[in-house]
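Hey, I was hoping to borrow your eyes for a little while. I've been staring at a protein lately and its backbone has me curious. You're getting the sequence in one-letter code plus the fold written as tokens. Would you mind checking whether the tokens look sensible for this chain? Here's the protein in full, and shout if anything looks odd to you:
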Amino acid sequence: MAVKGESMLLKHVFGIILNPAKEWQVIRDARPNIKSIYLSFVVLLGAIAPICGYIGTTMVGWSVGDSAVTKLTPSSAGVISILFYLAILIAVVMIGWMIRWMGETYGFPNDLDRCVALSAFTVTPLFLIGVFLLFSRIWVIYLIGLPATIYTVYLLYLGVPIMLDLPKEKGFLLSSSILAVGLVALVGMLGFTVILWGMNIAPNFTS
């Protein structure tokens, strides 16, 4: 069964949120390739957060308590949004590659297409909550982001054994390893951001 265009996007987005166990099986049986995953899913949903973040930080702004509203300059927000978008596009395939490599170490090799599909659809909740960056309110992002992150972890543990045809025990171990590596990568990204700030490569704010 071929998966094409918007049908893949809309069908799998709703399915992975409302009935993930069944939808993981549908995605596995559809055998989507990396090109279709990117063109009809990652490229579109991955743009939500960068676009909404740009609008939120340049037009809405944010404040802490009674402090004045702070905004980014359009040029600074534009650079950050583009880099953010590129990071999303690269991260999806890199995580897919990592899943494939780790699967081989467990003795369950899989093709890269299936692993990238697992990577892309697992982070669907995080793609969707990117719309809340329009509001640029830290408490809103935290309130929505925490359950979305928890659900993303749930999708990972549910999807790994289904997508990679693993026994549940092996799937649990592999999912835990993927999660651990993902957390280490996140810490590394935060550290890199701190280094950039220390080099004065930081966002520009409006006065």
Notes: The chain is about 75% helix and 0% strand.
